[in-house]
Amino acid sequence: MKSFIILLLGINAASAVTHSLKYFYTGSTGIEGFPQFVAVGIVDGMQIDYFDSVSEKNVLKQSWMEGVRDEKMITNTRKGNQQTFKANVEIGMQRFNQTTGVHIVQRMYGCEWDDEAGVTEGFNQYGYDGEDFIAFDLKTTKWIAPTPQAVITKLKWDSNTAYTENWNNYLTQTCIEWLKKYVDYGKSTLMRTVPPSVSLLQKAPSSPVTCHATGFYPRDVMVSWQKDGQDHHEDVEYGETLPNDDGTFQKSSHLTVTPEDRKNSKYQCVVQVKGIKKDFIEVLTDPDAANVVPIIGGVVALLLVVVAVVVGVVIWRKRSKKGFVPASTSDTDSENSGKAAPQI
Question: Which intervals of the chain are annotated as region Disordered (predicted)?
Fold first, then answer.
């Protein structure tokens, strides 16, 4: 499943920075050893706090967040959401005629702000068992139900004008105000730049070559390939930007190339991180003088384990903010003014 990402082109050019504030809620059942409810807050890709149904206490993850908000209120709000999501899982199972098994209800909401153009955007969407369930459309201030099982929720929430107006106000105003406050408090961390470590990795001579960049900040990065000095996109697979547990990020790009072509052409991986003028380049030599690290042991773990800034929370596949297709209708102050989410 894919996480929500923003792809920025021309990242080394002078451009505006898009800041984001996102909250991820996950309610689950049937997962042994995993909390039934987890909530995580993220600013500009960096985790700011964490709550789960085991500890039932909100924990700050950044020192610059201390004293910014009423953490006791946040804890109480998330306890309320914990109960709501427990009910939502049960409701989802009923809607899909399920009685047993592993089932997950997820929610992602928040906002983005372009600090130069002033353009803002808000989002509030739910997923069930890895698929889109329902989302709020800011343009129409209506809820979009891409599946028949969500139509009941859509009709209920559309008819609740107070709830709709509250969310419209939160996403267009309150969320943006808090995002700006967080960015100001954490600017020494959020506005820093950290160069990447770049390696070329390959499992076997016939396997794709992986260009792996890690340890960089901010998350806005391009990992691309060139052939004989020209941009090369053929037989290239681009990975997602993933979080490391130290607040930095990692990203990979995979090139499929024959040993013969490696001998006859010059391939190189180019990594560009926003805010750093220097390009980081690794040249792919021919197989007889390989500078490619074999993928074994810890390198496998590095590539396969998605580091848990979202604390192991699986985020459902999001096609695009405009990708929700409606189904037929015939069938805290910083977190939504401190109010718990309603049941679906």
Answer: 324-344
